[in-house]
Amino acid sequence: FGFVAGGRYKNSYWQREEERATFGLDGQGGLVSLDEGTQQRTDNIIDLAGLVNLEYEPDDTNLFRSVTLLTRRTDSRATRDFDFLSENDINVADTTLEWIERQLLTQQFSGEHFFDQWNELEVSWHGTYAKAERKEPDTRFYRYEQLNDGTYLFSDTGQSNERRWEDLNDEAWHFGVGTSLPTELGKAEIPVTFRS
């Protein structure tokens, strides 16, 4: 009997601030600034992973194996955008709050068997289950528009305020069997293999 196990955990934070601008042609071969602004973004990323591999060999002719793998990542992100939109001729302050979870779980059982009494027949098999998940429980976006006096007012237009929910689950099963049987062809021994 033997086993191998491993794991990883990481919790990281980082912050970024960037200046952005969009340019277009002015009709005379030059460039004119269309939109410009500043983005402030803070991220918290949590990574978790684990692997367990078990093997059991009761004798020289049988081997059983189990492999379990789990990976998980969580992203928490807050974004603030302060932009001038030339098309609407307004200054806006946008806020986006996101929480995204991703997870992958796989489990495989497999075995190898040797039958000396059946002309050295070898049989291998495996069964695998995998499940992938992605959840975005409540992403929120909202906008404030700057008034002439410099204060900001909550925008009441439909595209300026949004909440979004996403839930994705995907499952997969796979089974396989393989056999190998040495066969004599004249003086040569040729293994014949079948897999499904």
Attribute tags:
single chain
Give an overview in words.
By secondary structure, this protein is an all-beta fold. 0% of the residues lie in helices and 84% in strands. The protein has strands at residues 2-25, 31-59, 62-85, 90-115, 121-146, 152-154, 162-185, 188-195. Strands 1, 2, 3, 4, 5, 6, 7 and 8 form an 8-stranded antiparallel sheet that branches. It is elongated. The chain starts with a strand and ends with a strand.
Topology:
Layout: E1 2-25, E2 31-59, E3 62-85, E4 90-115, E5 121-146, E6 152-154, E7 162-185, E8 188-195
Q: Tell me how many strands there are.
A: 8
Question: Beta-strand level of the residues, as a percent range?
Answer: over 45%
Q: Which class best fits the helix and strand makeup?
A: mainly beta
Q: What series of H and E elements makes up the topology? A: EEEEEEEE
Terminal Cα separation, in Å? 28 Å
Shape: elongated
Question: Mind summarizing the main beta sheet?
Answer: 8 strands, antiparallel
Produce a short descriptive summary:
It is built from no helices and eight strands. With 196 residues, the protein is mainly beta. A hairpin with a 2-residue loop joins strand 2 (31-59) and strand 3.
